[in-house]
């Protein structure tokens, strides 16, 4: 079943995907990096010397922020891989294209310079960085929340860099060491995602969330819910309609019990509301 599926995978043209990187997008990325560094620096300056800030608070904010960033990286990566198409206005070029390019040419990321690697993530992080800076610092809870958001967004920003290093043949020695002790995304761990049809281990900051999320069938469950609500087939644009549909049906057969239960619940609900509703495995 797996080999058949692999043969059907439609590969998008890597050259066309790479050409989608326009000067306008690059300018936006440079602006985002500058704005991001400014906002994070202002936050550190504001927290500095605040009597409510202690070492344990900082440590827990940084650790929780790391876990949250890993989870966010999984969600965003999953959305970019699974839904929408590269032809969509704005979103298609700026966000979906890099994910699709990465599946057909996984070394391209290692040729991207600092701006192309990190600009995207700085852009999406700006609203949260601004929020973290503007929160009141009047109580321990507010200070913690502000530190947590600031730390999380820092790790979100670092995600593509960690991801890039996981594809680099000979990363700097210290980076290689951090990968081996799994303090940042290790190459072997990330390889699991790069196995066709690219449907698991989406978390790419450090990857600590990948196993727990796989155990509860988190992403397949989310896909069921979205397909049920919209009729869209996951990965249709990335691997082609035929392969996507086949994968969707295969997944349904060997889904973890919790996913099956959710599916039955959803299908039951759909039928109760609307007799004869289109089944999620045969979307219109
Ligand atoms: Zn991917
Ligand atoms: Zn990768």
UniProtKB/TrEMBL annotation:
Mark the transmembrane ranges. Answer: 30-49, 56-79, 140-158
Family the UniProt entry places it in: Belongs to the fatty acid desaturase CarF family.
What range(s) does the Lipid desaturase domain occupy? 66-237
Q: Which PANTHER family match?
A: PLASMANYLETHANOLAMINE DESATURASE 1, TRANSMEMBRANE PROTEIN 189
The keyword Transmembrane appears for this protein: yes
Q: Which organism is it from?
A: Cystobacter ferrugineus
Membrane topology (UniProt): Multi-pass membrane protein
Where is the major localization of this protein?
Answer: membrane
Under the cellular component aspect of Gene Ontology, which terms does the record hold? membrane
Q: Which GO terms describe its molecular function?
A: oxidoreductase activity
What is the protein's name according to its record? Carotenoid synthesis regulator CarF
> What InterPro entries does the record tag this protein with?
Lipid_desat, Plasmalogen_desaturase
Indicate whether Transmembrane helix appears among the record's keywords. yes
What keywords tag this UniProt record? Membrane, Transmembrane, Transmembrane helix
Subcellular localization is given as:
Membrane
């Amino acid at each position: 079943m797996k080999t058949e599926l692999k043969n059907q995978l439609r590969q998008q043209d890597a050259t066309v995907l790479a050409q989608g990187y326009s000067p306008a997008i690059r300018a936006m990325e440079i602006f985002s990096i500058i704005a991001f560094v400014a906002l994070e620096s202002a936050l550190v300056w504001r927290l500095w010397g605040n009597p409510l800030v202690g070492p344990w608070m900082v440590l827990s904010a940084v650790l929780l922020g790391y876990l949250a960033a890993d989870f966010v990286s999984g969600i965003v990566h999953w959305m970019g891989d699974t839904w929408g198409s590269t032809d969509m206005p704005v979103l298609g070029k700026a966000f979906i294209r890099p994910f699709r390019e990465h599946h057909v040419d996984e070394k391209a990321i290692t040729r991207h310079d600092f701006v192309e690697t990190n600009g995207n993530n700085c852009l999406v992080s700006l609203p949260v960085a601004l929020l973290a800076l503007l929160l009141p610092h009047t109580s321990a809870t507010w200070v913690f929340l502000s530190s947590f958001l600031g730390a999380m967004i820092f790790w979100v920003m670092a995600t593509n860099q960690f991801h890039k290093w996981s594809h680099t043949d000979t990363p700097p020695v210290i980076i290689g060491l951090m990968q081996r002790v799994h303090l940042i995304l290790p190459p072997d761990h990330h390889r699991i995602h790069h196995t066709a049809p690219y449907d698991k281990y989406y978390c790419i900051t450090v990857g600590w969330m990948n196993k727990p999320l796989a155990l509860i069938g988190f992403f397949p469950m989310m896909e069921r819910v979205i397909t049920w609500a919209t009729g869209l087939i996951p990965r249709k644009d990335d691997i082609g309609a035929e392969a996507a549909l086949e994968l969707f049906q295969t997944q349904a057969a060997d889904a973890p019990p919790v996913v099956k239960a959710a599916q039955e619940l959803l299908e039951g609900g759909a039928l109760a509301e609307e007799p004869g509703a289109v089944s999620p495995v045969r979307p219109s």
